[in-house]
Amino acid sequence: MSTPPRQELLAGTLFDIPDPPTGPAKMPSQPNTFAGYLAWRRSDAGLKVWRAIEDEALRRLAHGDRRVSPKGLVEWIRAAGNEINNTHTAWLADDLCRRHPELIDVIERRARRKHG
Question: pTM for this one?
Answer without folding.
Answer: 0.70
